[in-house]
């Protein structure tokens, strides 16, 4: 017994305190994952709907292009801001690992853009490129999510990556005009679901 008649903390009490502290630290260090999912989920849905509407001549290609640019830049800015805020105070291998993974997205997407440009210069039909190019980008995104799940032992990311790659394959098989809608609702919808799930899970901690 301690002075004042209070029981000394047991090993179980200490473990519970450590687990609570770890949970609190985790919620502070990774509150962004739900935001990332939600922001990019909204972006995918908006872009998919815009290009589907362009495919059925409801809006022009120019409008869809502007919508795509705004959605991507907006989501990227929000992601960067949240990522910088979350990364403050984190150093060492975890920080370097996160940085390298974060850089893998723009690097791989940029190089894929070059590859798509090369494919387009090979006189492939326009309709074919309109289906294959988005499917390639989505497939790569799925592979990166799957990699994230493997690196950080995240079942959600791993399954999400597989699902997004399936969406990419299905969109290529179906073709225009439905392929953008499949990507928007199938991929974007999955991201939104993951985002809501992450937010609910964090609030329950």
Automatic annotation (TrEMBL):
Residues spanning the membrane: 35-54, 66-87, 99-119, 131-151, 182-200
Domain of life: Bacteria
Keywords, alphabetical: Membrane, Transmembrane, Transmembrane helix
Protein name per Swiss-Prot or TrEMBL: Uncharacterized protein
Species in which this protein is naturally found: Pseudonocardia sulfidoxydans NBRC 16205
């Amino acid at each position: 017994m301690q002075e004042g008649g209070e029981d000394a903390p047991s090993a179980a009490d200490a473990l519970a305190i450590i687990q609570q502290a770890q949970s609190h630290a985790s919620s502070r260090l990774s509150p962004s994952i739900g935001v990332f999912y939600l922001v990019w989920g909204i972006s995918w849905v908006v872009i998919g709907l815009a290009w589907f509407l362009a495919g059925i001549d409801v809006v022009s290609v120019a409008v869809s292009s502007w919508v795509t640019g705004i959605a991507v830049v907006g989501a990227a800015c929000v992601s960067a801001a949240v990522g910088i805020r979350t990364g403050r105070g984190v150093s060492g291998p975890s920080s370097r690992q996160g940085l390298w993974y974060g850089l893998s997205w723009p690097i791989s997407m940029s190089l894929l853009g070059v590859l798509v440009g090369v494919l387009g210069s090979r006189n492939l039909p326009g309709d074919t490129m309109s289906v294959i190019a988005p499917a390639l980008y989505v497939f790569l995104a799925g592979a990166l999510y799957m990699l994230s799940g493997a690196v950080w032992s995240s079942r959600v990311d791993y399954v999400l990556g597989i699902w997004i790659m399936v969406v990419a394959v299905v969109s290529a098989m179906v073709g225009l005009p439905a392929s953008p809608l499949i990507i928007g609702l199938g991929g974007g919808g999955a991201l939104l679901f993951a985002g809501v799930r992450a937010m609910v899970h964090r609030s329950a901690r």
